[in-house]
Amino acid sequence: MNSAKKSRDSQFSDRVANVVFYAIAGIICLILAALLLYILITGLPHVSWKFLTSTSKSFQAGGGIGIQLFNSFYLLILTMIISIPISLGAGIWLSEYAKKNRFTDIIRTTIEILSSLPSVVVGLFGFILFVLQFHMGFSLLSGALALTIFSLPLLTTNVENALQSIHFTQREAGLALGLSRIETVWKIVIPAALPSIITGMILASGRVFGEAAALIYTAGQSAPALNFSNWNIFDISSPLSPFRPAETLAVHIWKVNSEGLIPDASQVSAGASAVLIIAVLIFNFGARYLGNRLYKHMTGNQS
């Protein structure tokens, strides 16, 4: 009788715990959905092709976010060009070559600390080092280097975890076939981990795209007019120049709300926020879709 009663009590406790956990998860999902719907419902009516392509206004109504949107994507590309090779090298070394000792433990602890730093701290560090010490000024390059510091820990951890998730028997199979260690890594381990690596990189891109605090102090808060017929990267009027100041979309939202100089500041802010949210959602859902497709493709080929 006692054992039966204990079994019923444990089952009841499990059901209560499940209800509580589902309720908490449901509340969190409702809050997130309400926030996203509010931003989209209030912002999408102000989004149009003219809004997406026209330049912003400083003191007049009717401005757009064309230059800020271009700056955001260009800065993201620059950051990924710098971050991806470094994170791949660091992740491969930590996963495949680094021995477990105090030195590697310190490196992993440092990566964890860097990944938890507030973005404003990274921005102030970038301002002191890149803007002032290296005399880069407020520029896309300063912003990309600051965001590299911000994204490197995330990307390195993602690469390391993706490589470690590959079973050791695949490495042994490569070595048994006469491949060297580096050939085994490049031809067997990395291709098998590629879906997870790409998914993590796209998710990190979404986080970088929506970053603002680190860019206020590095990329600047101005968006000069661009001459799209000028492809000289050393001319700051060129859209491809990494040496020009570049206000991004997230910084523009912060600036519009903080200054309040534009007559239609609330409409511009709402529209820009909706565009930013949509872009981040595309990054997130696109990463999962692409990761699943790559995984199914590779497992289909292997079968």
Automatic annotation (TrEMBL):
* InterPro entries found in the cross-reference section: MetI-like (IPR000515), MetI-like_sf (IPR035906), Phosphate_PstA (IPR005672)
Query: Which ranges carry the ABC transmembrane type-1 domain?
Result: 69-287
Q: By its UniProt entry, which CDD domains does this protein fall under?
A: TM_PBP2
Q: Using the record, list the residue span of the signal peptide; answer none if the entry has no such feature.
A: none
Q: Name one GO cellular component term.
A: plasma membrane
List keywords of the entry alphabetically. Cell membrane, Membrane, Transmembrane, Transmembrane helix, Transport
Membrane-crossing ranges are: 20-41, 73-94, 114-134, 140-163, 184-204, 268-290
Bilayer disposition of the protein = Multi-pass membrane protein
Pfam families xrefs: BPD_transp_1 (PF00528)
Name the family the entry cites.
Belongs to the binding-protein-dependent transport system permease family. CysTW subfamily.
* Name of the protein this chain belongs to: Phosphate transport system permease protein PstA
High-level lineage? Bacteria, Bacillati, Bacillota, Bacilli, Lactobacillales
